[in-house]
Recover the amino acids of this structure.
């Protein structure tokens, strides 16, 4: 028969929870709302969705092709990942939001260059509308 644990025993057995840490860098666009570029909890990094904003101006890039937007989005994610001490190869999951899934193949060709081996798990969805009417937004989770 199992005995119930005392409160003290449960507290001693409970895992230690890491405090969430905000990650911010000037090498990626500043948040355009009440959110953080990323939050690190222990060895896991939760990255907010990035769009094709130029970090120097916080304005949309001039080239609005799906290829250019995808490159800028992934460069922005990379800047935040690296600011947290992680690498792109530490990304384990991404969520890609697209305005038009007919552009998936062109987005995917650029995306593949950022994850040449062991690409992360991914979900891709078409959204009715994205912030600033961009073509693509990508959020990610990294872990070590």
């Amino acid at each position: 028969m199992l005995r119930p644990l005392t409160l003290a025993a449960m507290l001693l057995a409970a895992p230690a929870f890491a405090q969430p840490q905000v990650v911010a860098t000037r090498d990626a666009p500043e948040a355009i709302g009440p959110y953080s570029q990323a939050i690190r909890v222990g060895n896991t990094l939760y990255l907010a969705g990035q769009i094709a904003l130029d970090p120097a101006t916080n304005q949309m890039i001039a080239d609005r092709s799906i290829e250019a937007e995808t490159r800028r989005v992934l460069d922005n994610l990379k800047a935040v990942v690296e600011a947290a001490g992680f690498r792109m190869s530490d990304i384990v999951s991404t969520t890609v939001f697209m305005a038009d899934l007919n552009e998936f193949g062109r987005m995917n060709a650029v995306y593949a260059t950022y994850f040449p081996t062991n690409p992360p798990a991914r979900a891709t969805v078409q959204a009715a509308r994205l912030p600033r009417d961009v073509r693509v937004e990508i959020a990610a989770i990294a872990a070590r």
Q: What stands out?
A: The chain has one domain: 21-143. The chain has a mean pLDDT of 92.
